[in-house]
């Protein structure tokens, strides 16, 4: 079954709207990732969907003002954590911090969705340049990671989200996204002996979802804008059934 992750980002603006939307998209195979402040209330109403967090502190509970520790997420029945979203990277998160967050996530027994993807500037130089960029992003997070992992088994997803496709209405082509997914999977097995599922993200909607999700290389989707409209989101989820 393909995984469809609803990344609400900093939406919606009220608690009541968040609860209404969560109930409307509470389906199996869906991970709802609301802002932190709505996690507890949504956790109480979900019957089928899983719950995710948009970020996590690399630190355990303690004197870290403004941070949310992995064990606090687990207490709210959160199962997934998005790590290294390009909007977090833009806000200043470094590869080093992203590696620490990934380690903290996996060591706590949470499932991680690590985001990678190139900018428009990189892609201008061609698809090979994009692959090289993604390879370097993965290397900076995964080299040396195994020494920090305390757990033997973990669930890891890599979301390929070209930055120029996020929230722009322009997607990558399904062919390139599938090729990038294969490339990432091969790299992860060959270099790190990790088998991962690769999700596609970036302007996915009801009309284009099928062309991506019907590809065997693509294990699911990370959906932003379209996950805030239940009728649109429903059509995306239906393409996987
Ligand atoms: P989008 O966002 O679907 O609105 O392009 C995707 C994401 O940032 O995860």
Describe this structure in words.
With 241 residues, this protein is of the alpha/beta class. It has one domain: TIM Barrel, CATH 3.20.20. It is 41% helix and 15% strand. The protein has an eight-stranded parallel β-barrel, surrounded by five helices. Strand 1 (3-7), helix 1 and strand 2 (30-33) form a beta-alpha-beta unit. The longest helix has 19 residues, at 174-192. The radius of gyration is 17 Å and the shape is globular. The site of 2-phosphoglycolic acid has 13 residues, from strand 8. It is an enzyme of class 5 (isomerase).
Quick overview:
The protein has helices spanning 15-24, 39-45, 70-75, 86-90, 95-107, 120-123, 127-142, 145-148, 174-192, 209-213, 230-238, and strands spanning 3-7, 30-33, 50-53, 80-83, 111-116, 156-160, 197-201, 220-223.
Question: Any key phrases for this structure?
Answer:
eight-stranded parallel β-barrel, binds 2-phosphoglycolic acid, 241 residues, 41% helix, globular, 8 strands, TIM Barrel
Count of folded domains: 1
Supply the helix-strand structural class: alpha/beta
Number of helices: 11
* CATH class membership: Alpha Beta
| Major sheet strand order | 1-2-3-4-5-6-7-8
Architecture, according to CATH? Answer: Alpha-Beta Barrel
| pLDDT < 50 stretches | none
**Amount of beta strand:** 15-25%
Number of strands: 8
What average pLDDT do the residues reach? 96
Task: Tell me, briefly, the overall form.
Answer: globular
CATH topology: TIM Barrel
Head-to-tail CA distance between termini: 8 Å
Subunit structure: Homodimer.
Organism: Candidatus Colwellbacteria bacterium RIFCSPLOWO2_01_FULL_48_10
Enzyme class: isomerase
Keywords: Cytoplasm, Gluconeogenesis, Glycolysis, Isomerase
